[in-house]
Amino acid sequence: MGGIPDLKALEGAVFSSQTERLSALLERGLGLAPTATNVDAFLEQCRHRAAGLGIRDDAYFDLLEAGGPSARTEWMALSPVLTVGETFLFRDAALWRLVERTLLPDLARLTRPLWLWSAGCSTGEEAYTLAIVARRALGANAFTVLGSDVNPKAVAAARVGVYTQWSLRGVDHDRLDDLITSGTQTVRVHDDVKAHVRFDTHNLNDPNAFPPAGMSSFECIICRNVLIYMTHGAREKVIERLASCLTPGGVLVLGHGEAQGIVTQGLVIERHDAGIVYRKPLQPTSIKERPSQPKATARKPAARPAHAPRTSKAVLKTRSAHKPAAPPAEAPIDAERARRLLDEAVLQARSGKADAAERIAASAMAANPLDPEPHVLLAALFAARDAFKQAEAALRRALFLDPACIPALWQMGTLYRLTNRDRQAAYTFARLLARLEGLPPDREALPFDNLTVNELTTLLRAALGEPADA
Which pTM does this prediction carry? Predict the structure, then answer.
């Protein structure tokens, strides 16, 4: 007589089998080392995508396993919730000094223009940093930078080239020449730097994705803090593919320890104080003018604020906080005068005259106590000198006056990120994204920074790690 089946044992076996299948798929599709967290996130997103396509979960897993164009599209859609996008401008200053002062000048003797690749660039900070140091080392029109990432939302944000003060942490003031730091809410990459950078989606773990974007060889490839999330086997294959894209004499720069335990065949290890560089041996070849690469479709740039000098930290630290004077309870509202004062305060902020900007903004608040925008400007000025408590208080006053104030919500979410309150940041960004829905895409969203609704929506989707839609 047969025994009663152990349902718990059967459920456990099914769960174990599904986990093994998902883990194998993660490595196959993105090269990721499976963890309890990313396997759960992967399963949830697979179910979401399967429902959107109107197929069963198992059929969706079969689609991923089959490979081909459809599977590649799905991996791009899944990537935002599975990949880590933490990055900032000039991350690891010593390495960038090595690139600027040693590696690029040496490589410039090989060919012209240089082709440079930031592989796994997330929202573009590393690609723009590479372009800035290349422009300093080589001059304009002597290089082209490709920035690539598997996350299409991150690539879209990279093309905007607008960041928060969070992306400037640790950056020396002498590195700010090619950035626009207006003293308000955002940091912009200059258009003359952006002109040398193109972005594309690219999966490093897909052998059919090489060479990327029609660019057959590169003199310098930088791929840092990407491979650490991959399995040993995936890292080995990716390094091999990256090496195959190097021009003879070209260099590959990886993150610390990312090639540990891997034999980098065909590459020579160079040890520098700033880290290890892998160089492809130079073979005798004639040096010729490199033909121009296909250009990306030109996009009409948004109006940019004029570049403004940044006041030194030493001066900023000595400033006393300017608390806006509370207007009299019966003070008449003069909206027209308040707007003129606010416009003047913005001009002063963009000129680096933070003290004057604060005083004029306080006067604008006195002229119109019901306008939230002077509070938002004051918050940006406070945050620029790390007075985060004062900045938060100013933003709370702005949101009290207008709970749906777009510039206040954007800056509050950014402030939460700066102070490591990620959950509050995500909630605030999601609230702002909902606020932007239905607004004209070309409407101005951040009046102090000339940022449109479409551009801000792109940045928010990348910050929230939203998956691509079907």
Answer: 0.73
